[in-house]
Amino acid sequence: MLGGAIAGGAALALPLPAMAKGIEWRLAIRNVHTNETVDAVFARSGRFLAAGLAELNHGLRDWRTGETIGMDRRLLALLVSLRQKLDLGGNRKIDLISGYRSPKTNAKLRSNGGKHTGVAHMSQHMLGKATDIVVPGVSLDRLRGAALALGGGGVGYYPRDGFVHIDTGRVRHW
Fold first, then answer.
1. Long-range interactions of 119-122: CB distance < 8 A, separation 24+
2. CA–CA dist 107, 84 (Å, integer)
3. Is 157 helix (H, G, I), strand (E, B) or coil?
4. Which of 10-19, 25-34, 90-99 has the highest mean pLDDT?
5. Which burial class, exposed, middle or buried, applies to 49 when counting CB atoms under 10 A from its CB (0-12, 13-18, 19+)?
C-alpha cells in the first residue's frame, strides 16, 4: 500500500502548466488515419470539463475498433505543457498517430510486426496514458527535446516512422 501511495504521489508531481483563474487548457488534434479533428477546451480555472474530456476521449480513441477509454488527464495536461514549451498557439493542431489502443489492436500490431515491432506487450497506450504524435512545422528533434525537457514520463523517438511517443509512465526515454 505504501508503494502505491508513493507512486500516486509521484504521478501528481508531474510538471503541469499553471492554471490560474480564467485560464483554459485546450487541445486541438487531428487523427492522421481518419483526418478527424477535435479542438476542445478540457479544463478551465483548475476544473476539468466533462464535455471537453469526452471530445478528447473520442478523438484519441482506437480508430481501428472505435473503442474509447478515459484518457489520463495528466497526459492531456502534459500535451498542453508540450505545446507551451514549443511556443505553439492553443488551437495549433497536433497530428495524432496513435492514442488509446485496445488490447486487441495492440496484440494485432505486435503479431503483425514480429518480435521487434516497438509495440510493448503492456503498452501505456492500452491504459490511455500514451500518444504517438507529430506537430506539423516542428522537427521531430525539437519535439523530442521539448518532451524530454518536461520530464513528465516516457519519451520514445521514432525518426524512421516519423513520430515521437509521449506517455505518463515512469520517466524514461528510448
1. none
2. 34
3. strand
4. 25-34
5. middle
Q: Which domains does the chain have, with CATH numbers?
A: 2-173 (3.30.1380)
pLDDT of residue 53 exceeding 70:
yes
- CB 19, CB 25: distance < 8 Å: yes
Can you count the helices (H) and strands (E) in the chain? 5, 8
| 61: its cell numbers | 480513441
How far is C-alpha 100 from the chain's CA centre? 9
Describe the strand order of the beta sheet including 163-167 as a list of residue ranges: 47-48, 37-44, 24-31, 94-98, 130-134, 163-167, 154-158, 172-173
Helices (H), 21-161: 50-59, 73-85, 103-113, 140-150
Confidence at 143, pLDDT banded by 50, 70, 90: very high
- Supply the pTM of this predicted model: 0.83
Please spell the DSSP secondary structure of 56-83, one letter per residue. HHHHTS-TTT-------HHHHHHHHHHH
